[in-house]
From TrEMBL:
Family: Belongs to the acyl-CoA dehydrogenase family.
Annotated gene: mmgC_2
Names of required cofactors: FAD
Group of enzyme by EC: oxidoreductase
Acyl-CoA oxidase/dehydrogenase middle domain mapped to chain residues: 122-217
Protein name per the record: Acyl-CoA dehydrogenase
Recorded superkingdom: Bacteria
MF terms (GO), sorted A to Z: acyl-CoA dehydrogenase activity; flavin adenine dinucleotide binding
Domain Acyl-CoA dehydrogenase/oxidase C-terminal: 229-382
Species annotation: Sporomusa termitida
InterPro entries named in the record: Acyl-CoA_Oxase/DH_mid-dom, Acyl-CoA_Oxase/DH_mid-dom_sf, AcylCo_DH-like_C, AcylCo_DH/oxidase_C, AcylCoA_DH/ox_N, AcylCoA_DH/ox_N_sf, AcylCoA_DH/oxidase_NM_dom_sf
Length: 394
């Protein structure tokens, strides 16, 4: 199937919302206990083209535009956070580093497999003893046509369901900080690749997180993305795009928080009238709606820039702004939602929607693809570079 008409795309958005707020929400009740996605979840993702739709058409995808991808993500982010975490990754960071930086041969071999999840990856950058940038300590030493990788990664998502791992490693400790690192796409079946367990998370249940350990893991040079020394650039570019996908996820959650808050405010009667008629509640609704509108405008502006030039001058800066502001939006909307609901919103199985789960799940967004502090560092660096100026492209 090629690109969708506008009518087909709107129907698809409706389909994904109904799937999310229907089947996925019901399925999540067991997942909150087991912390494991059933096979049915993955099959529904395939059946509803959630692994396929964002892929370029030459690899069996629908070739959705960046704006269309973000709109799809907004819809499924109204549902369970763990499923959102899996699907938002599937539609972006799962395949994009290979597409942007892989060799023609590696792309021809692996890109078609993303459409039906026969190829699925994890993004292994973070380390417990360092950050996610130039201080990475996992090493790769050249040995003929191979590299020998040793080290550990920490807090890595999707390790329970992937068969390849993007691994960023130190290849030249003597190079400048911008060229010390390299990135490989490594088959998880490679000898020396080990998964190490971690405790369950507060929210986003079902999305597997573990550590990784590499012991004398021999990886052929064909799995190197870009060239040696490109690892930091690959990480920065790939995470810049993914940060906006996190922002779109926050947008979907915040919008659902507002939607169910409006329903509750219409129904809740105190002193003889619905609380939606009270000025204090209307102030909360106004704040929620304003934050959501501002975030949607920022996300859509980024999509326009990205479609014109994925490596544009302001991509990194605007992406970090979207991620940073989106965190605040879900905080504001989550807090206001609980106040509008009162005590009933703190309980499971609320008749209006998953208020307490939305509140828990949204907190993961503070950490995914970099904390607020990391976003502010990125923004300030780029803002100083650009003299406080941002361009808005037509």
């Amino acid at each position: 199937m090629g690109k969708l008409s506008e009518q087909e795309f709107q129907a698809y958005l409706k389909q994904i919302r109904e799937l999310t707020e229907g089947t996925f929400d019901k399925m999540q009740k067991d997942i909150e206990v087991t912390n494991v996605f059933p096979e049915e979840f993955y099959q529904l993702g395939i059946k509803n083209n959630l692994y396929r739709c964002s892929l370029p058409t030459e690899y069996g995808g629908w070739g959705l535009s960046e704006l269309e991808i973000l709109k799809v993500q907004e819809e499924f982010s109204r549902g369970p956070g763990g499923m959102r975490m899996h699907l938002h990754y599937a539609m972006d960071l799962n395949w994009r580093p290979l597409y942007d930086f892989g060799s023609k041969e590696l792309k021809a071999e692996l890109m078609p497999g993303f459409q039906d999840r026969s190829v699925f990856t994890c993004w292994a950058v973070t380390e417990e003893t360092g950050g996610t940038g130039a201080d990475i300590k996992t090493t790769a030493v050249k040995d003929g046509d191979d590299y020998i990788i040793n080290g550990e990664k920490f807090l890595i998502s999707h390790t329970d369901c992937c068969n390849y791992a993007y691994i960023t490693v130190l290849t030249d400790p003597n190079a400048d900080k911008d060229h010390r690192l390299s990135t490989f796409m490594v088959p998880c079946a490679t000898p020396g690749y080990e998964v190490t367990p971690m405790p369950h998370m507060m929210g986003c249940r079902g999305s597997g997180h573990t550590g990784l350990k590499f012991t004398n893991m021999r990886v052929n040079k064909k799995y190197l993305l870009g060239k040696e020394g490109d690892g930091l650039h690959i990480s920065i570019h790939s995470l810049s795009v993914s940060r906006v996908h996190i922002a779109a996820s926050n947008l979907g959650m915040a919008q659902r928080m507002l939607d169910i808050s409006l329903k509750r405010a219409h129904d809740r009667i105190t002193f003889g009238k619905p609380i939606i008629e009270r000025q204090a509640i209307r102030m909360k609704i106004a704040d929620m709606a304003t934050h959501i509108h501002a975030l949607r405008t920022m996300v859509y502006d980024f999509a326009k820039d990205y479609e014109l030039d994925p490596h544009g001058e302001y991509i990194e800066e605007k992406a970090a702004m979207c991620k940073l502001f989106s965190i605040w939006v879900t905080k504001v909307c989550g807090d206001e939602m609980l106040e509008i609901f009162g005590g009933i919103g703190y309980f499971e199985d609320c008749e209006y929607g998953p208020t307490e789960r939305l509140y828990r799940d949204s907190r993961a967004m503070w950490l995914e693809e970099g904390t607020p502090t990391v976003q502010r560092i990125t923004i300030s660096r780029q803002t100083i570079k650009h003299g406080g100026h941002l361009e808005y492209l037509d």
